[in-house]
Amino acid sequence: MSAEKKMVEAITPMDVDFAQWYTDVCKKADLVDYSSVRGCMIIRPYGYAIWENIQKILDARFKATGHENVYMPLFIPESLLNKEKEHVQGFAPEVAWVTHGGDEKLTERLCVRPTSETLFCEHYANIIRSYRDLPKLYNQWCSVVRWEKTTRPFLRSREFLWQEGHTMHATAEDAIEETLRMLDIYADFHENDLAIPVIKGRKTESDKFAGAVATYAIEALMHDGKSLQAGTSHYFGDGFARAFGIQYTDRENKLVYPHQTSWGVSTRMIGGTIMTHGDNDGLVLPPAVAPIQIVVIPIAQHKEGVLEAARSLAAKLGEHFRVKLDDSDYTPGWKFAEYEMKGVPLRIEIGPRDIEAGQFVAVTRHNREKIVAPISEAVSVAAERLKAVRDGLYEKALANRTAHTYTCTTIEEIKTALREHGDGFVRLMWCGDEACEDSIKEQTGVGSRCIPPEEEQEKISDVCICCGKPAKHMIYFAKAY
Amino acid sequence: MSAEKKMVEAITPMDVDFAQWYTDVCKKADLVDYSSVRGCMIIRPYGYAIWENIQKILDARFKATGHENVYMPLFIPESLLNKEKEHVQGFAPEVAWVTHGGDEKLTERLCVRPTSETLFCEHYANIIRSYRDLPKLYNQWCSVVRWEKTTRPFLRSREFLWQEGHTMHATAEDAIEETLRMLDIYADFHENDLAIPVIKGRKTESDKFAGAVATYAIEALMHDGKSLQAGTSHYFGDGFARAFGIQYTDRENKLVYPHQTSWGVSTRMIGGTIMTHGDNDGLVLPPAVAPIQIVVIPIAQHKEGVLEAARSLAAKLGEHFRVKLDDSDYTPGWKFAEYEMKGVPLRIEIGPRDIEAGQFVAVTRHNREKIVAPISEAVSVAAERLKAVRDGLYEKALANRTAHTYTCTTIEEIKTALREHGDGFVRLMWCGDEACEDSIKEQTGVGSRCIPPEEEQEKISDVCICCGKPAKHMIYFAKAY
Fold first, then answer.
1. Model ipTM?
2. CB neighbours of A203 closer than 8 A, spacing ≥ 6?
3. Domains of chain B by residue range
């Protein structure tokens, strides 16, 4: 951070301009910067460290469930992208095309991968022969490119970082189980680590991934009442396998097609974290992914013994947590504001009087709760406080979602709820027809998000909110990012 | 691995065709596969796991020396690449150009980054204002693209994975110190973790990185007597800073230019590891980066108690090492060959007679040394054996390099040495003129590799081996990858 910038600048309040608040937080918490590459972002050290923490946790869960990491080429030849019809129709309009290598025009243009189903399929066709080769459980961490018109840091950018899992299974049942297993891992990571409550469910036909039989997603409600699709998991059936000629010999020695899945989450999760937990003082980070979990700030640090005590406390905590001691010559007040802007979950203050009393002050970022605790118990107190932050963040987000979830049985009720209580999730009954799905969106401004699983289906009424015919599903609608 | 493939296929012997041996090892050890994306490789799980181990070790060293990770865009606008004249001349002929986004022609074409100096400089111009902002010590893990004509897995491919450090310093001294510090980290990693002895030195003027004041490299001698440039570290002076208008206010309140470095290593190191340690039975991996450090193979596993004993031993070892138990129904002989192909450093065998005697058999991959040890001491014996593998690999490689390093004072001596003892390093005295450098290469086939630091300069003779004028440097020449 530049010395000049080292003044705490105010950010636009959320209720004045939510989009500007978001951009301010991204910039002023030093998460991103812009460059001359339009639509792409620079992820700065503080932002990238959040991504590294996310990667570390998820990668361990992927490996614990038997997945292996690989790396596929960045480019996809046009003819390869064209192999699966629905897939190419979905992605061709938004890919970046490489046409020249050095001074030479390529004989076939290459797109920069928007997603890698086609590359994985080509490889699987090479390496899958027998039922003994299945399942293949591959994952890749990489960047992908989609030529978006309107971009915003983390939420929608022309290049973003993500992971994409691509798996092949002997049977449809195995593949569906995998699809839902990974959806569960995403949901669990969001709820426990990011402290973001999510709705799990299936996308409607019109909202599926290009080439999928079924797309499942987790949806999270942001501060402004819009939903963020935070992760997706797709079941492909054997469509790609047929298009790419992937076959294996089963136990009965018959040649059959395997069944496929793919699933992904991206740096978009950082955007979701900002818009779920952030406030008018800046970022608020859940401890599991915070680059700095605890900042230790000495009070009256010029006084004898203060710096030593702060250092010793920070060192002790540093054995268990990600800790930063700020002994710079800025004032404590400046430092408080700076680390609030950066969303550090727990601030620890220690000054002459604290030292005398053998204690320290701990303040949790999200609710400014201040406690005093003995230095001798620092580690256990800090652990408890960080747990309290995660739980507090989750409860706050859940309460906000509950307050902004409206169960409606008529179009008028939807309009009234949104007008009177603000944007949010609308739960309604739907006949399953795309015409009604479109009509609801046209009339109310909210679009379909997802259909929760059978066991969470609740019969709000017998009929479709739009056409009055028998209803098939309870479904969530919302405005969305 | 496919069931059909599950026969141990022989690989081409090194001395029959070294290039084919290399390709065979890459393919048959399941490190890479090809795709329809010409010149790019698929890094398969076993190959990627080696890269993950490399990343983990290096990333920790970078962080321990104060570096932070960031992520810059994949694309560089043509005008940005053009800002530093020497740099663009070096890279423009070998970049891939994106000209279209979806159906639209871009107003300015973008290259896929071949390296990111220009992007870092643009960002540094935004964030560096004062001496208090320095140093900036950034690193990025990513893939880069260079449109090579001839490609080989790991050694030279159109896309490869690497890390690129980019740092800014207040003074030239600080920047030079950083350049050499990172060179040392690379050398140390090669020698200790990859067990590859390296020569550290400065590149000649003609061989510098495009835009650098000085380029330093580590060079390693491969089995076939060719040198592999395994890592580079560049000092840029303030050339890029001037081109990009990066200035800061120093302590005397004057506006001055900072000094810059960049440094990188890539998946090429995997190629170097294969060509340094591999043999006619396949890959040989140094324990620090081996995905499987120890394979446990039960002998006569159908006999009572064998599988249990093997499992218990593998579990105990698994607490300290990366261990695989192979209890598949292949024969022990098949398994031996399979894990030799894959270069697993230590094989542990345990059968009925071993169990009775409370012992196991441990065989080190690189020299087939077989020892018998008590099960109760498995962990300490395994640790000692893995250390012995690292040391043995290093000594073997060093002995090979020593045997193929020729100190020459005439062109004729170079020719004779290469003819009689095979390719290798040639140490010679050089006047420093490019004409002589070129002439030596033309006459002998070996090109300049690097000039070792002052303290390692040894005066072989007073005069240049080529022109007979006073010599300036002792320098290493070799054929190179």
1. 0.95
2. A209, A214, A215, A216, A217, A232, A448, A450, A451
3. 18-277, 294-388, 405-478
